[in-house]
Amino acid sequence: MKKPIKVKNIENIQKINQVVSKYPFDIWIHSKSGMVDAKSILGIFALSLNEELFLVTDDEVDAHSLYAELADYIDIEH
Fold it and tell me: Residue 42 burial (CB < 10 Å; 0-12/13-18/19+)?
């Protein structure tokens, strides 16, 4: 599943990384310039925050609680 995510600053990166690190399944952040493991804080720092970013999980996982925890950063309706 792919959902738009807004990452504006270092605090956003740290919070998102803290949340995704609690989940046992793979979570990625995808942009035009590439895809990084959302559990890697260095990977997230390597992204350009000026590009459109997407939070990506496998379609088979139940990510509803993840999306609820990240509601300030993602568009749940999308």
Answer: exposed
